[in-house]
Amino acid sequence: MGMQCYICGKKPQLGNQKTYRGKAKYLGGVGRKITSTTRRVFKPNLQRIKIVVKGEVMTKRVCVQCIRSGRVQRPVVRKPFTLSA
């Protein structure tokens, strides 16, 4: 599956990186100019975590946005504390 989120399918996207020269107008220059444009890759922030899928615990690569938004169910490591009467 490579670099792809197991939940949402987010994967690397291509974009542009621009190189500038010159001094900004607000600093007294004539303005910034774009001198070149090169391709770059925006990679998703993937983490290897244990998740519960159909009642089974497995380790998958999931993006942080899915983890923080609650789209991932994490396994219960231990039972919650209870008081005995």
Mind explaining what this structure looks like?
With 85 residues, the protein is mainly beta. It has a domain at 13-69. The protein is 7% helix and 41% strand. The chain has 1 helix and 4 strands; from the N terminus they run E-E-E-E-H. It has one helix at 64-69, and strands spanning 13-21, 33-42, 46-53, 56-63. Strands 1-2 form a two-stranded antiparallel ribbon. Strands 3-4 form a two-stranded antiparallel sheet. The longest helix is centred in the C-terminal third of the chain and has 6 residues, at 64-69. The radius of gyration is 23 Å and the shape is elongated.
Assembly type:
single chain
Portion in helices: under 10%
Strand content: 35-45%
Poorly predicted residue ranges: none
Key structural traits:
two-stranded antiparallel ribbon; two-stranded antiparallel sheet; elongated; 85 residues; 1 helix
Please write out the topology.
Layout: E1 13-21, E2 33-42, E3 46-53, E4 56-63, H1 64-69
Antiparallel strand pairs: 1-2, 3-4
What's the short version?
With 85 residues, the chain is mainly beta. It has a domain at 13-69.
